[in-house]
Amino acid sequence: MPRKKAPRYCLSSQPESLQAFLVWASSHRNVLDKLIVTHGGVVLRGFPVRETDDFGALVELFPSFAGDYVGGLAPRTQIAGKVMEATRLDKNAKIRLHSEMAYMQNYPPRIAFFSKSTAHTGGETIIADTRELIGSLSPELREKLETLGVMTVRNFAAPSGRLDESVPHVDLRGWDLAFQTDERDEVTARCKERGLEPIWNKDGSLTVVNRTAAVVVHPQTEQKLYRSNLHIYRVDSNMQGLDPEIIRHLRENQERPSGTFLGDGQPLAEEEALQFTAHLDQKERAWSWKDGDVMILDNLQVWHGRNPFEGSRDVQVAMLG
Q1: Of 83, 113, 122, 261, which one has the fewest beta carbons inside 10 Å?
Q2: CATH class of this structure's domain 29-130+288-320
Q3: Cα-based distances in Å from 62 to 47, 109, 204, 226, 291
Q4: Contact present, 41 and 302 (Cβ < 8 Å)
Q5: Can you name the residues that pair with 98 across neighbouring β-strands?
Q6: Domain segments of the chain as ranges
Q7: Does residue 270 surpass a pLDDT of 80?
């Protein structure tokens, strides 16, 4: 598949010191903001961003996300300030294209990535412009999405007290780690604050149910955009390309299996899910990282994911307003 060339904003010379770069980035914030909205994202390459603190200083120039990652799906920890790990999902898993926190009512308008250490083989961040996605769907499916919305069911394991170096599946992470507390009452309160319905299971695990709109309006462009995992996060789906036996065992042992449904509780039909796949397969691009790269995406207009990789990889993220 031929790769589309992304529009570029070129500099005649690039700041050599971190402080000079931060001054440059601050003075060009309006330009960067416009480019992110117009093109869906920007990549900053060749600048002196080498460490987590450098990336942290850069993202401090942007508005913060008015929320947090409590109850989030990915197994990740906070590193420093706004900066988090990208994910601890197993390196052999491909993470499908998605909008960050598409299963939550409150979500970050933008998300920034920093490649501190690029994988030896693979590990590209996959991206796709989704501005034409909803227009590619049948009128019948678009009406379903707009009128019914989405209901998401997610499961968390019983408390583990630790986050393993690599997590084979998101449902295997303890709820104590996801909600940053081992107190049930506190988890219930945090769920209520975020519009989640907690269901406590006999085995000590936790199921949360929440409802969101499937179609939202972009705050700057006023374009209607699809924002959901409905097409991939289904009971019988395998988002991470794992051994089907792992998925089957998980679902059989969940009182209410994880998945995303239309607001009336019905799953998306296979032929309907294929409408999304056909469009996203055409739009998917793999971004090959270089150490020090920073990518800032409009979280509604451009989705992201990750290819499997070999060796070590350290890509960090920050959620922005």
Answers
A1: 122
A2: alpha beta
A3: 17, 11, 40, 25, 22
A4: yes
A5: 304
A6: 29-130+288-320, 133-277
A7: yes
Q: Residue 63's closest CA among 102, 39, 29?
A: 29
The answer to whether residue 164 scores a pLDDT higher than 90 is no
Tokens of 79: 């590193």
Q: Distances from the Cα of 215 to the Cαs of 47, 184, 262, 303, 306, in angstroms? A: 37, 33, 12, 15, 24
Degrees, nearest 5: CA angle 170-141-72: 20
In this model, does residue 246 exceed pLDDT 80?
no
CATH architecture entry for 133-277: 4-Layer Sandwich (3.60)
Q: What is the pLDDT of residue 169?
A: 75
pLDDT at 8: 45
* CA separation for the pair 49, 58 (Å, rounded): 9
Could you tell me the CA-to-CA distances from 97 to 25, 100, 202, 276, 306 in Å, in that order?
28, 10, 34, 11, 8
Which residues share a beta bridge with 296? 42, 112
